[in-house]
């Protein structure tokens, strides 16, 4: 199963200057819980936005750079399809960004785990529109902003119709 996981604002903003544009600890916890023990597929810029590889996950990094060097345990692929081909067929695999990789994968993904951040914010990277003719909302959980979270947000899970 191919699952897209992302946090995006009301205007589908994901990030700016290769950085996240909010700090939502509960979203980070959910991301860690959902993706731990699995393969995660990302573009090179997304990988480079991490201080180090995320623990307990197999990283597949999509890049066209032939001589791109990555830490031990990370895998390089030259396209989204080649990245998916490197993943186990009987396990859930997560697409974790960035914007271009989300755009390429939304037509083939089986599920979307989206944290909708209830704000409109300036960004340079965006999540694709979710076509509700193709996707069914099966889970929704609202969280109010508090001392640790600057914005209200909702965990949403969509499955392909």
UniProtKB/TrEMBL annotation:
GO terms for molecular function: dihydrofolate reductase activity; NADP+ binding. GO terms for biological process: dihydrofolate metabolic process; folic acid metabolic process; one-carbon metabolic process; tetrahydrofolate biosynthetic process. It catalyses: (6S)-5,6,7,8-tetrahydrofolate + NADP(+) = 7,8-dihydrofolate + NADPH + H(+). It holds the Pfam family DHFR_1. It is an enzyme of class 1 (oxidoreductase). It comes from the Bacteria. Residues 1-160 form the DHFR domain. PROSITE patterns: DHFR_2 (PS51330). Keywords: NADP, One-carbon metabolism, Oxidoreductase. Key enzyme in folate metabolism. Catalyzes an essential reaction for de novo glycine and purine synthesis, and for DNA precursor synthesis. This is Dihydrofolate reductase. The lineage of its organism: Bacteria, Pseudomonadati, Bacteroidota, Flavobacteriia, Flavobacteriales.
